[in-house]
Amino acid sequence: MKRRAGEREKELKKKKLLEELGENRLPYMTPADADFHQLWKTKYSKLIFRKSDTIPEELHQMVQEGFLTLRKHDCFFQDLVRIKGKDFVTPVSRILIGNPGCTYKYLNTRLFTVPWPTEGYDIKYCSPRVHDACKALIRLNDYLHIEAVKALQGQNLFESKEIKDSTVIDREQNFATSFMEKGSVSKDQSSCCVSEDDYISLKNRTSYNLTLLNYMDPLQMLYLKQEPYFGMGNMAVSWHHDENLVERSTVAVYSYSCEGSAVEESNEQKLNGRDPAIWHVGLKVAWDIETPGLAIPLHQGDFYLMLDDLNMTHQHCVLAGFSPRFSSTHRVADCSRGTLEYIFGQCELALQNLQTDSESMALSLKSLETAVVKQVEEIHNEVEFEWLRQFWFQGKRYLKCTDWWLKPMAKLEEFWRKMEVMTSLVLSEVGKEEQIEEQRNETLSCFLLVLTERQKLRKEWTASLATGFHFEETVLWRQSLKSFRSLE
Asked: Model-level pTM?
């Protein structure tokens, strides 16, 4: 419900903004514009850009070879996502790589990490080269974490009114052109004004637990959506805030456009606006028609950081060039409800209400209290629709890289089957005459709501695509309805 309300609110804001614009377009700036740096400094100061020559060449080579390896092994997939109640296939192909057992959900689709090499985990990859690709990405992850911590320290330094050091003042005056610099603020420079607690906070907001890799070849796309507010041209990714992140966490994006394989930067007369041959990241203040937008060119090996609350106060899009492009978007995903550890814990909580007779081995429920039944059935729904269906809906894509997820998903499936038995046991118990009518009616009322939601979601999933995982829903649901009607 909250998601749908949020989508309606965003749609109303977009409609109002487009109505205010009419046939006009908002202004935007590129580095070729005289006021570009001043606009960046005053309105987009929490965007930090670094050119490719600031990154060690060895790391570039490892990561870029990793991209090509994953592409060669067909590890990138377009996602089926849900927007405003409708299913769409993304123009960009993606793969999620990160901590073992982590997931990331966007636009109603849960992606499961291909685990990068992690101490203490036995991860078998389909080939040594896929292992090397994942290893390269965790190396990049570590590098970007360090850079993000330094950037946040620098941001704190600039914002501190107590700091009078002339070096800091010089850096602040030249901040707008920092995307051309190689330097960054070190821990030693900032230790005088960052407490230990603040430093821990900075680390936590930059400790990336996964990266969402993207790939697109614009020349292979039949259609790309046009940017609607500024007239920036073809969009690979529309305006958005990144979802499901730890609050005020930094997003780091490494870009690798395969320059030279398509039309490169225009050598013709000076263009108005951005060069359409070059990939750009676009930024704007969210739902604002006063502040000009930014379009920043992305060349091979560049990276940028969105610090602090920039992802909440601003929106960004990706503007397509002519050449194929990879990107690695490193995030501190909010995994409070998105890890194997979490969902296994939920299953164990639900199954505490199931007991086995030591002699007959018959299964029964420990409690029929409404709150207990409701909790178990909600966990039942969570396992089925947030995990099992999401995983099998995406087919066998993960086997392109590793079989790591098969065992935990088999374990989850077994938990789900036990919860199906628990659903049947509730129906059996509430139909018995010795049940107190008031308690029975309360349990039934609550139980019916959860079961109705389950059937609605099953129909939605069936309508989207065959899952590849066969739930025994039809017989159970018919049994459930028959039981309810007999008790009315």
From this structure: 0.85
**DSSP-derived secondary structure letter, 227:** P
Taking alpha carbons only, the member of 447, 389, 456, 453 closest to residue 423 is 447
pLDDT in tens, the chain (488 residues): 555 566 666 667 766 776 776 778 899 999 999 999 999 999 999 999 999 999 999 999 999 999 999 999 999 999 988 887 778 889 999 999 999 999 999 988 999 999 999 999 999 999 999 999 999 999 999 999 999 999 998 887 666 644 444 444 344 344 434 433 433 434 444 444 567 777 788 888 999 999 999 999 999 998 999 999 999 999 999 999 999 999 999 999 999 998 764 444 544 434 568 999 999 999 999 988 899 999 999 999 999 999 999 999 999 999 999 999 999 999 999 999 999 999 999 999 999 999 998 888 999 999 999 999 999 999 999 999 999 999 998 877 889 999 999 999 999 999 999 999 999 999 888 877 666 777 778 888 899 999 999 999 999 888 876 433 333 343 343 444 444 344 33
Q: Torsions phi, psi of 267, nearest 5? A: -105, 10
Task: Report the C-alpha gap between 149 and 376 in whole angstroms.
Answer: 42
Residue with tokens 């676009």: 282
User: What is the dihedral angle through the alpha carbons of 156, 160, 165, 168, rounded to the nearest 10 degrees?
Assistant: 40
Alpha carbon distances (Å) from 44 to 118, 122, 293, 310, 336 = 36, 43, 9, 8, 30
In 3D space, the residue among 46, 138, 57, 126 whose CA is nearest the CA of residue 97 turns out to be: 138
Placement of tokens 């109303």 in the chain: 12
Q: Check: CB of residue 216 under 8 Å from CB of residue 325.
A: yes
Residue 326, helix vs strand vs coil: strand
Evaluate whether 227 touches 14 at the Cβ level (below 8 Å): no
Rounded Cα gap, residues 269 and 159, in angstroms: 41
φ, ψ dihedrals at 352, nearest 5°: -65, -20
Q: Which of 258, 265, 306 minimizes the C-alpha distance to 284?
A: 306
Question: Which amino acid appears at position 320 of this protein?
Answer: A
User: What residue type is assigned to position 389 of the chain?
Assistant: R
Q: What residues does 87 pair with on adjacent strands?
A: 82
How many angstroms separate the first and last alpha carbons of the chain? 29
Of 424, 283, 293, nearest to 365 (Cα)?
424
Sign of CA dihedral 32, 37, 40, 46: positive
**Secondary element (H or E) of residue 325:** strand 325-331
CA angle 283, 287, 291 (to 5 degrees): 60
- Report the 10 Å Cβ neighbour count for 219: 13
How far does Cα 81 stand from its chain's mean position? 12
H helix count then E strand count, the chain: 14, 17
Phi, psi of 117 (to 5 degrees): -55, 125
